[in-house]
Design goal:
Layout (H helix, E strand, L loop, with lengths): L1 E2 L3 H11 L7 E2 L3 H11 L3 E5 L7 H11 L4 E6 L4 H10 L3 E4 L4 H12 L4 E2 L1 H9 L7 H11 L4 H8 L3 H14 L5 H11 L3
Parallel strand pairs: 1-2, 1-3, 3-4, 4-5, 5-6
Helix pairs in contact: 2-3, 7-9, 7-10, 8-9
């Protein structure tokens, strides 16, 4: 079963996968996905995380909770360690890329259906690379708050540090990550799975 609110993606996947697998595609909200899954009882459910509304992770959690016998594959265009961690924490047994060749996607779905955990190879490699995080624990704390849009004064109050110390940490982070500003550094660190 394929669940996506993105009609073109859903129908394209249906067309490609139906040549290899018995596939049903469903769009709509979480309730429609659950209703269809309860009715069909598929072995594997592919959930698009990037569709309109971006409720894919919530859908994964609901499906895993209500139909634990169905394996869920999270499908996304975001190949970051952060996206992988979120999908696995939601209960997905597979993590696939929108950019995978159809044969690889079919193989991944089949293997997840047999009980294996499968992760898109590029994302797995990026996750391993993320283990070389150059930021200290305190720099990560400061950057995490900065990523939420908090000004230096608010970060200082939150962490019980001076505003000057916060500016020093942010300068260090920007320098270490070779970025132009703290927003770019926060985006890079988030994609790398460091914050």
């Amino acid at each position: 079963m394929i669940f996506s609110n993105h009609v073109l993606l859903r129908e394209s996947l249906h067309a490609v996968l139906s040549t290899e697998l018995d596939v049903t595609s469903v769009g709509g909200d979480d309730g429609e996905a659950l209703t269809a899954a309860h009715k069909i009882r598929p072995d594997v459910i592919v959930v698009d995380l990037d569709g309109p509304g971006r409720h894919g992770l919530r859908t994964v959690r609901l499906l895993v909770a209500e139909l634990p016998e169905c394996a869920v594959v999270a499908l996304t265009g975001r190949h970051t360690p952060h996206a992988l961690r979120q999908a696995l924490a939601a209960g997905a047994r597979g993590f696939a890329s929108r950019e995978q060749p159809p044969a690889e996607l079919v193989d991944l779905i089949r293997r997840v259906g047999r009980g294996e955990r499968m992760i898109h190879p590029g994302t797995a490699l990026a996750t391993l690379a993320a283990m070389n995080n150059p930021l200290s624990a305190r720099e990560r704390d400061v950057l995490r708050l900065a990523a939420r849009g908090m000004p230096s004064a608010a970060i200082a109050a939150e962490l019980f540090l001076s505003e000057g110390t916060i500016r020093n940490y942010l300068s260090s982070v920007v320098r270490k990550l070779n970025c132009r500003n703290r927003l770019e550094a926060a985006r890079l660190a988030e994609e790398a799975g460091w914050i």
